[in-house]
Amino acid sequence: MRELRLGVFFLLLLVSPIANATCLDIDGVKFEAIGATSLLASRGGLNIAIVQVYGSNYEGGFPFQDIRKIQKLEFRFFSPKLCDSSGGIRFQINGELGQVRIIELFSK
Length: 108
What we know:
Layout: H1 2-19, E1 23-25, E2 29-35, E3 38-43, E4 46-55, E5 75-77, E6 81-83, E7 90-93, E8 96-105
Antiparallel strand pairs: 1-6, 2-3, 3-4, 4-8, 5-7, 7-8
């Protein structure tokens, strides 16, 4: 019985972050750098979210440190949704692997 309770407990720990993930459907979304590690997401001319990001491979963030200083940002996404937890957190900016830290969706 104790093993069953422990199993259920660990299952809930695994499912909880996925259930609480904030996700952004990236179809038709444009991103603009508004801070060193902040992106403004817009769709159809309307601002829909702020996405806080950090680099996956570097302690201090992306190798260029401030994404506002890049002339042209090129994004590559690996799933149709960008999320702040689970599988949709990884993406690339100009070939550098990054991760989403927080997605702040704006109210409709």
